[in-house]
Amino acid sequence: MPLLVMKFGGTSVADLARIENAAKKVQKEVERGYDVIVIVSAMSGETNKLVGYVEGTSKLYDAREYDAVVASGENVTAGLMALRLQEMGIPARSWQGWQVPIQTTAQHGSARFVDIPRANIDAKFAEGFKVAVVAGFQGISPEGRITTLGRGGSDTTAVAFAAAFGAERCDIYTDVDGVYTTDPRVSSKARKLDKIAFEEMLELASLGAKVLQTRSVELAMRYKVRLRVLSSFEDTDETSGTLVCDEEEIMESKVVSGVAFSREEAKITLFTIEDRPGVASAIFGPLADAGVNVDMIVQNISEKDYDDAHPGAVTDMTFSCPINQVERAKKAMEDAKATGLIGYDELIVDTDVAKVSVVGIGMRSHAGVAAKMFNALAAEGINIKVISTSEIKISVLIDRKYMELAVQALHDAFELEKA
Ligand code: ADP
Ligand code: ASP
Ligand code: MG
Q: 294 C-alpha vs ligand 2 centroid, how far in Å?
């Protein structure tokens, strides 16, 4: 039997009516002759509520118990979806992660897949079941504890199942009808893309576009999964939505294909650090040990270059990290100062920042993208605090209050509304 993976996100299973609506989409595919693996998220808002319960109970919570609580939202929707399908006369069975069993690492809260053995689900299909409804976002650790994959992780569950079961396609049903040039909730000029290259989608996701979890795109790219994003609220067919695919499948490619943004950034500056060999290592070593994901880095040019004649040269170092890691970063720096590993006069945290990025594989072969980007921001009077670039993206850190304006300005400057 040909097999499809269909994933429904939180808003697509937000209540019983929406679960029924999603089930009808599954029914259509079953009637077309597919066996279907349905991956469900928790009802929208549910995971936030569960996270709130954990944080309200324990400040420095045990990550194993966080996972035990937070994974439960998906169990409810998996059971309800199986029941709804049964009501429609479709043989369906629900699966929690441990029942498959979905084997993951023991990194609670951000576990990674180790293996998805097919035997149990294959046996059910062989018995005549048409649909396996699997709770997204969860698995079990080698110790047999419940794990979760990080927020948005049901996308990754879907792609991993598509790879493990050799699915014809992995369809991600959500509350927008595809991947846009930028978040359609921020810019009314955002344009839906028919296709986007894996690498661009990977950058957009990792730079803040929440439409797909970054890891899901990585897996799809590695295992050549045909990945599609489409709306659960509209009538859809095989041509709907956005296909995430190899670069070679895309005919026309723009220099910049999308704008991403993230509000979850913070900027930390260490003032008056020594400018000598080993200082960067003495700063970023302890940050890495503390599990801080440093993103952008700038070191000011000091007045005098370090050399034997100027042993006292000083400079400032600025870096960005996720806003929820600021406390950890601060503590790592204070500890490093206390033990004499580094010296600085002042540590300043700025949490009123946002990162805005332009992404496009065309940048590899085009000059002038950075100039155009900085020009567009300057024309709006937006000051750039930190810049970082890679082969196919340019990111800037700016004041949070200008984020929407910056997204609009860049969308206009690169004419993304035009096909
Ligand atoms: P789900 O609950 O279905 O997983 P998410 O909220 O995780 O849905 O992801 C869908 C949301 O992603 C959209 O509602 C949209 O606001 C946001 N989004 C951000 N960037 C983009 C983009 N470039 N294209 C489409 N949607 C985007
Ligand atoms: N329910 C989880 C979350 O809200 C996983 C997901 O929806 O993908 O993050
Ligand atoms: Mg999501």
A: 24
Residue 195 covered by a domain: no
Look at ligand 2, atom 6, and give the residue with the nearest C-alpha: 152
In short, whether 136's Cβ falls inside 6 Å of ligand 2 is: yes
Does residue 97's CB lie within 6 angstroms of at least one atom of ligand 2? Answer: no
What is the distance in A from the centroid of ligand 3 to the CA of 311? 51
Residue 245 lies in a domain: no
- Rounded to whole angstroms, how far apart are CA atoms 50 and 56? 10
- Per residue in 204-259, pLDDT tens? 999 999 999 999 999 999 999 999 999 999 999 989 999 999 999 987 778 999 99
Name the residue among 92, 180, 99 with its Cα closest to residue 128.
92
184 assigned to some structural domain: no
Looking at residue 272, which CATH number applies to its domain?
3.30.2130.10
pLDDT band, very low/low/confident/very high, at 275 (cuts 50, 70, 90): confident
22 band by pLDDT with thresholds 50, 70 and 90: very high
pLDDT tops 80 at residue 19 = yes
CATH code assigned at 82: 3.40.1160.10
